[in-house]
Every structure is written in C-alpha cells, then in structure tokens.
Amino acid sequence: MGGWAIAVHGGAGVDPNLPKERQEEAKRLLTRCLDIGISALRSNLPAIDVVELVVRELETDPLFNSGRGSALTEKGTVEMEASIMDGPKRRCGAVSGLTTVKNPVSLARLVMDKTPHSYLAFAGAEEFARTQGVELVDNGYFITEDNVGMLKLAKEANSILFDYRVPTLGTCCIGVGAALESPIQMNGLPISVYAPETVGCVVVDKEGRCAAATSTGGLMNKMNGRIGDSPLIGSGTYACELVGVSCTGEGEAIIRSTLAREVAAVMEYKGLNLQEAVDNVIKYRLDEGKAGVIAVSKNGEVACGFNTTGMFRGCATEDGFREVGVW
Amino acid sequence: MRWAIAVHGGAGVPPSLPPEKRLPREAGLRHCLDVGIAALQARNHPLDVVELVVRELENHPYFNAGRGSVLTSRGTIEMEASIMDGKTMKCGAVSGLSTVVNPVSLARLVMEKTPHIYLAFDGAEAFAREQGVETVEMSHFITPGNIERLKQAQEAGRVQIDHTQPDDAVADGDGRIGTVGCVAVDNEGNLAAATSTGGMVNKMVGRIGDTPVIGAGTYANHLCAVSATGIGEAIIRGTVARDVAALMEFKGISLEEVAAYVMDRVPPDTTGLIAVSSTGEVAMPFNTPGMFRACATEDGYSEIAIWDSPSK
C-alpha cells in the first residue's frame, strides 16, 4: 500500500492475427514509455508531469494513433485531441482539432495551467499554441504512409474505422475483402481493419497524487470536426483524489457511459476497490460497447480492464510489479 | 408515472436586476414552459419536447443561447449545445457554431444522422449546410446588450461566465444571463435533456465549456435527466450532470437529496441545475444568487422563479 504506480496504454481492440513483429514493436514502445515514467517517478516528478512526459513520448512515436501516426480524417488530414487531469484539485485541460501542434497533450496542459478555461479547440486552440510558442509543424508531419493506405481501404469499405493495422508482409496488403471475413468487430468493422490505438497514461506518485492523460488522432475516415471521447473529461480521462483513469475504444460507448468518471464513482459511492471498480465498469457499463480502461489509485495500486480482444498496455508499481501485454 | 418538465435560463442573477431586464426573461420562461407543457400533454416524446423548448429559448434574444449569445474576446459568436435521450442514451453535441440558428437541433442531427456524437467548428458548420438547417449571418445573433457586456468585461480585464460579480456596479445590473436548458419526462418514464449556450462573455476564441460535454452540462439515463448552468470549468471538473445520475443510481435517494448532495460538492457561486426523475420528481438547486427557472408537473403544479421564492 502506498508508493508510486504507472500504467500506459496504446489502445483497446487488437486484431488476433496481428503479426508477431508488430506486437513486439508495440511492446517495445510500451516498455520504453514505462521506463521513462518510472525513471521520472524515481526522480520525484509529480504525477501530472509524469503523465505528460509519457504521453508526449507516445505522441512522438509514429506507432500508435496519436501525434505522429494519427488516424486520418475523411479529407486525409490529421485532427488531434487530448486531455489531461490532475487529481488533487481536479484541474483539467483539453484540446481538439489540432493540426500543427507536435504534442497535443502538452497544449492541453497549457490550457489547464495558463488559461481561465478547460478546453480549447480548432482555430482558437492553434492560435493559443502560437502564443505559447509550443513546437509547431506542418500537418504532413503527422501523416504516415501506413495511415494513407488505411484511409484508402477505409473509404473502399465505406466505413468509419478507429484505426487499424492491416497485416503487411513485405509489400503485400490484405485487401478489404479478406479483412471483412474476420468475425470480431468493433464499431461495426472487422477487427483486422480496425484498432483504436488511442494512447494514455495514468500515474500515482509517492505522495499519493493521481493524474491521467489521453491523446488521439481519432477515428480513421472521421468527419472533419468530429470530437471523440479522448478530450472529454469524465469520458476518456478522469482524475480525482482517489484515482486516475484513461480509456480507449469505441468513443460513443465511452461517452455514453462517462466511463472514466464511472471508475471513480463506483469507488466513491459503492466502496469498490480499484480492480473491482475497473472490472465493474467494463462488465456493466458498456452494454454493447467495446472499450478498455487503465487506472491507478492513491494507494499505489494499478488496474487494467477491457472487453475487447486485447489492449496494448503496460503497468508497474513501486514494489516491483511489472507487466507489458497485448492480450 | 407522471410527466414533468423543467426549464432554465441560466444560473447567477444579481438581486439588483431591474424589472426591465427581469420581466422579459420571466415572460420568456413562461412561454417556453407553456410550449413544453403543451408538447408533453400532446404526448410528444421528451426528446422532441426538450429540443422544441430549447429552440424557443435559443430564439429568445434575452437568453445566452442562439440569438442573444454572449460574445468571444473577438466580438464573435461561438455557440454550443448538446442533447441526450435517457432511454437509448444516444447523445449529440456541437460547438463553435456561428451561423446555425438552432444549435440544439444540429446537435440532434449529429446524434441521428452521423456515426459520431460531437462535431465542432468548421466541420459542424459544413454538416449544417449539408443538412440544410437554417443558417444566417453571424450578426443575426449579436445583440446590443452583449456588445456592451463584452466592452465592460474587456475594460475590467475580466472573463465573465455570463455573470458579473454579485456586487459589481455594472450600469445595467444584468450581467448574469445564462445558458439555457430543458429536461423532461413523459408518463412512460422516458427522459431527455438538452442544453445550449453562447458560452462566457469575453471567452477565448475556441473555448469550449460544459454545455456540449456529455456528463458535465447534460446527461440523461433511465433514472433522470439533467441540465447544468454556471461556471463551465467547475461543471466539467465536477462532472455535474453525470454525478446527479450516478448518485440516484448508487444511493437510491430522492432526486431532491441527490441534487443537494451534488451542489455541496461544487464551489459556491458556480453552479445551478435542473433535473427530473423517471417518477416525475423535479429539482432545481443552485448555489448562485439566483437562477432563471421554471417547472411544471402533471398534477398541476407549476413555478417560475429567479431567486429563492417562486414569483408568479
């Protein structure tokens, strides 16, 4: 009891046929992020700084769906969103519709720290970014070849995709036809053509302070202007005195169930412990929805839960527990 | 089960509000309440009822939604709204609208006509055009009162949450004009909530408040429907609308008690809300000096009030 704890995720919903090397790549990234977080915790950085640091790392790496490597809108552009919350006073910051900001989670932090507001979006958020002197790049920086290919397939399938990784062997791509035979579905699409890969991090530091942050490019082929659960406090992200939570999966399901807030609510009002709370919300709050949750408590516990096939995740506690997993 | 409806026109009303500011708003509340009552009596679904009532409030220039919205720091209009159906828990939200006459209706279209829940700014405006909803020049929404409010706020170096400070010697004394909202339950226990606003006076361009954030400004499930108003940042942090519903579920106490409990947990002078439950209870608590509100229930009770005692 007590001590620091950290969890990171790279999205809930993984294609069971995802090639081994892709899984290993993901695990390496999660491990690296975990190490960055652990090192920061050991240097006594407060939870709020640690979650920002770790999510920045996830945004910068093109592997998952945030920052560089974000899913593309229907127009082939990138619109990113993120939120961050500091447990002790429940201060929060969120951004949506970013197109040039290299690290959305850091801009969300600046909204929290430097404005009287909690949430800035689109042109107003970009303008704020300029006044703050954060690193800006061309929208093209965020776009990867992989995702350009995915968008094309998504349009062919004429469906919304969270994000997906079509298994590629050399230069050969599995077409939509084969993909559509896959039995597992999320958001109406076969799992082989979909994987949300929103990223997030939750941390409790040695002082028992919890924090959470989530970042994403959103749904592949989404309408321009579409906002998902990731920047919505209470849905994709939540932190209070008791707990820090970050969610990923089907945005609609997460919003309707205000999933992140739910974890804290069942702890507060039903007296469940962290793991019970995570299991409870996954089991009872999602109806047909598919999602995953990572959470830490002020007592130094960490918990993950998901009703999807797999969730890219990693967690560690001060007493030496450590796990990086996909299934 | 009996139907019930509640309407609000914003939390935070200075006691010094002069009659010429108070009367049109009371009349507006009365009118919107009547529209809602008639719709419920005609057996319309609560989702239709709340949309209808909020449209009326948006069209009314004295409330901070649709026409009459407060202005951003640039003197522009950025409106937002959300709507939620308690039974299906489907929801829709919009932000950053500057030409759409009825934001709440666009939020409903997002809910019903897209695979998404929330559209904002250019994307939302483009969707509005695709849907052929009524759009007008932004100037349509701007009222002289709001130009004045912005001027005062900028002179005072202040960002106002539809309000002035209670003792502020603001010339017209009506700084507090608020977000609007409506919650309703029919006699089958179906619930719905909707909220709409222009936001905060002198807000940063691009600022989003609690109104379009499901769980903060608006929420509905099978137990209750809630619409909140006040300082958006406090309502977001407090996940106010969701907390009312969560407490009803977890504590099994009355709506009135739940509402009081939630109000205890937000900072003073920040929040007001209206809520109805599946059994026809109504609650309209607020911790600001006043809240423009009205409600009615099937057994004939009705109330229009601003401060603590009903004024009819």
UniProtKB/TrEMBL annotation, chain A:
CDD domains: Asparaginase_2 (cd04701). This is Isoaspartyl peptidase/L-asparaginase 2. Heterotetramer of two alpha and two beta chains arranged as a dimer of alpha/beta heterodimers. It comes from Hibiscus sabdariffa (roselle).
From TrEMBL, chain B:
Keywords: Autocatalytic cleavage. SUPFAM superfamilies: N-terminal nucleophile aminohydrolases (Ntn hydrolases). It is an enzyme of class 3 (hydrolase). It catalyses: Cleavage of a beta-linked Asp residue from the N-terminus of a polypeptide. The keyword Nucleotidyltransferase does not apply. Pfam families: Asparaginase_2. It comes from the Eukaryota. Its EC number is 3.4.19.5. InterPro entries: Ntn_hydrolases_N (IPR029055), Peptidase_T2 (IPR000246). The keyword Mitochondrion does not apply. Heterotetramer of two alpha and two beta chains arranged as a dimer of alpha/beta heterodimers. This is beta-aspartyl-peptidase. It comes from Hibiscus sabdariffa (roselle).
